[in-house]
Amino acid sequence: xxxxxxxxxxxxxxxxxxxxxxxxxxxxxxxxxxxxxxxxxxxxxxxxxxxxxxxxxxxxxxxxxxxxxxxxxxxxxxxxxxxxxxxxxxxxxxxxxxxxxxxxxxxxxxxxxxxxxxxxxxxxxxxxxxxx
Length: 132
Description:
Helix content: 10-25%
Number of domains: 1
Number of helices: 3
Strand content: 35-45%
Radius of gyration: 15 Å
Mean pLDDT: 93
CATH architecture: Roll
CATH superfamily: Phosphoribosyl-AMP cyclohydrolase
CATH class: Alpha Beta
């Protein structure tokens, strides 16, 4: 058995990607959803910090490389079908923690109401101050 056999258990999609749900270990908050390819998942395990595949940049993206909002990985789980990875992380960088590029704690800050989508979580830090 090779040391990468654990990666073979993942059901990669046609583009070689798997959905990654990112959950804050302490609060249980779902912070974001991202994509990982085989290399990103292997690097995440190796570094103990989240590395994703950026579909827009077409390259590996080490979370926090620009913002400083690093995700320290506490555990990596695979769902029953093998097609979704769950990362339980400790969000580092700013206090309170910021995982979203909009400067919010989590990417799921919009809630559906009768009149439509409403932002219900505050911007904790202006993104122009976070990103170089």
